[in-house]
């Protein structure tokens, strides 16, 4: 039996002292929180950069495009991704793998992805989760020969490439909608109104908060928590399950199609749209359920992108400034004022924006299907249950 180190030339390991970071400079830093088991980190979420001098003099090693990278410390230990280019840096809590000729880089990414549970069992942290590089390099592996690796990688990578392309299209469409919304808000015919006058806004009552021990491995009722609501929307793969009793006790937060969800604790402003529901679903503490009470006056698409706008971001920043633990109170949310376009202008906005928003939802649903197919194929390809050695691809 081989060990992973038999396939690794070296590792890129810049852990140790911290360099000087900038809000913006030439080289974005891929922090471990950006590594989320997808083929590339979301570079729009980068918060730290290093300059040319730091890049050349501080770093001990450099990544290149499609190099597998892994988180070693924190709640996401074992998470993997591929470096998007050579013009990025990894520093604390993250390592990269330089492979030998007998290993395909993209195959290694999927191999590590398929062994997440095993890798997390190497956790040695007492205060916070952590794994050692030596444990990863020393783990037993069963690797096919290089041509088979490349075929497996090509099959799986094709799914993720399509998902990424859809995400890029959605980002572009969202930017267009937000720009259109701001142009309508800046119009002189818009009257200033309070958001709370148009919306149903509810959150889970404090004493009804759920403990982790109450989450079930499976049931007929789902729950969306802070981890499920990401900056990119609702990640249904991370939604939990709860008992019927816990679901029915809070009818005010039973989700409906068309609801908007907004995080109100910690990372405030993460937003999601409920376009479909496979099971009855509720929300955990820390999330507002937002429902359009006056669709004849204000478009739900308008509300969604208003809550994603710089105008609302500024409102959140003003209300949470100086808070040790940021929290958006419902009473503050209700008081948020914004310019409401006239009925004619709102209809114009809806005519332009709604088809674009519908395309975003279509792309997201396609991504769910693609991800489900990829996830079902991954273990079968890695175990050899699906033999691709004879395929001509």
Largest sheet: 4 strands, antiparallel
CATH superfamily of the largest domain: DNA methylase specificity domains
Looking at the overall shape, the CATH architecture of the largest domain is Alpha-Beta Complex
CA(first)-CA(last) distance: 28 Å
- Number of DSSP E strands: 19
- In N-to-C order, the SSE pattern is EEEEHEEEHHHEHEEEEEEHEEEEHHHEH
Query: Quick one: overall form?
Result: globular
Q: What is the CATH class of the largest domain?
A: Alpha Beta
User: Which stretches of 5+ consecutive residues score pLDDT under 50?
Assistant: none
Question: Structural class given helices, strands, pairing?
Answer: alpha+beta
Please tell me about this protein's structure.
With 393 residues, this protein is α+β, with helices and mostly antiparallel strands. The protein folds into 3 domains: 2-142, Adenine-n6-DNA-methyltransferase TaqI, Chain A, domain 2 (Alpha-Beta Complex); 144-175 and 344-393, Helix Hairpins (Orthogonal Bundle), CATH 1.10.287; 191-340, Adenine-n6-DNA-methyltransferase TaqI, Chain A, domain 2 (Alpha-Beta Complex), CATH 3.90.220. 35% of the residues lie in helices and 17% in strands. The chain contains 10 helices and 19 strands. The protein has helices spanning 52-57, 105-114, 116-120, 133-137, 146-185, 244-248, 300-306, 310-320, 330-335, 343-383, and strands at 2-3, 8-13, 27-28, 49-50, 68-71, 80-82, 94-99, 140-141, 191-194, 199-203, 222-224, 229-230, 233-234, 240-241, 260-263, 271-273, 281-283, 287-292, 337-340. The strands form 7 sheets. It has a 4-stranded antiparallel sheet, covered by helices on one side. Strands 10-18-15-16 form a 4-stranded antiparallel sheet, covered by helices on one side. A 3-stranded mixed sheet has the order 14-11-17, with no helix packed on it. Strand 5 and strand 6 (80-82) form a beta hairpin. Helix 2 crosses helix 5 (146-185) and helix 5 packs antiparallel against helix 10. The mean pLDDT is 91.
């Amino acid at each position: 039996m081989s060990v992973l180190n038999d396939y690794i030339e070296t590792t890129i390991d810049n852990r140790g002292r911290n360099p000087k970071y900038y809000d913006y400079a030439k080289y974005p830093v891929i922090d471990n929180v950006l590594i989320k088991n997808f083929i590339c980190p979301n570079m729009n979420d980068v918060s730290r950069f290093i300059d040319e001098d730091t890049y050349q003099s501080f770093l001990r090693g450099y990544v290149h495009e499609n190099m597998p990278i892994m988180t070693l410390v924190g709640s996401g230990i074992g998470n993997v991704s591929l470096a998007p280019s050579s013009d990025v840096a990894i520093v604390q809590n993250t390592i990269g793998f330089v492979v030998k000729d007998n290993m395909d880089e993209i195959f290694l990414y999927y191999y590590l992805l398929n062994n997440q549970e095993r890798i997390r069992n190497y956790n040695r942290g007492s205060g916070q989760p952590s794994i050692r590089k030596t444990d990863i390099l020393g783990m037993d592996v069963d690797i096919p020969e290089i041509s088979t690796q490349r075929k497996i990688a090509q099959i799986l990578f094709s799914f993720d490439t399509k998902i990424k392309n859809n995400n890029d299209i959605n980002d572009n469409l969202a930017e267009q909608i937000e720009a259109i919304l701001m142009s309508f808000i800046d119009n002189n015919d818009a009257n200033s109104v309070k958001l709370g006058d148009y919306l149903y806004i509810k959150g889970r009552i404090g004493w009804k908060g759920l403990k982790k021990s109450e989450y079930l491995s499976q049931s007929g009722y789902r729950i969306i928590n802070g981890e499920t609501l990401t900056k990119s929307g609702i990640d249904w793969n991370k939604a939990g399950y709860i008992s019927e009793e816990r679901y029915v006790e809070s009818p005010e937060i039973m989700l409906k199609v068309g609801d908007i969800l907004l995080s109100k604790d910690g990372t405030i402003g993460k937003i999601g749209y409920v376009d479909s529901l496979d099971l009855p679903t509720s929300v955990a503490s820390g999330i507002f359920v937002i429902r359009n009470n006056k669709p004849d006056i204000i478009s739900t698409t308008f509300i969604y992108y208003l809550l994603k706008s710089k105008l609302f971001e500024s409102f959140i920043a003003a209300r949470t400034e100086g808070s040790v633990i940021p929290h958006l109170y419902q009473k503050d949310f209700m008081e948020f004022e914004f310019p409401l376009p006239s009925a004619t202008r709102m209809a114009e906005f809806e005519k332009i924006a709604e088809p674009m928003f519908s395309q975003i939802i279509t792309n997201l649903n396609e991504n769910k299907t693609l991800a489900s197919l990829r996830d079902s194929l991954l273990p079968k390809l890695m175990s050899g249950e699906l033999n691709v050695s004879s395929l001509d691809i």
